[in-house]
Amino acid sequence: QVQLVESGGGLVQAGGSLRLSCAASGSIFRINAMAWYRQAPGKQRELAAAITSGGSTNYADSVKGRFTISRDNAKNTVYLQMNSLKPEDTAVYYCNADLVWRGGRGGYWGQGTQVTVSS
Question: CA triplet 71, 40, 26: central angle to 5 degrees?
Answer without folding.
Answer: 35
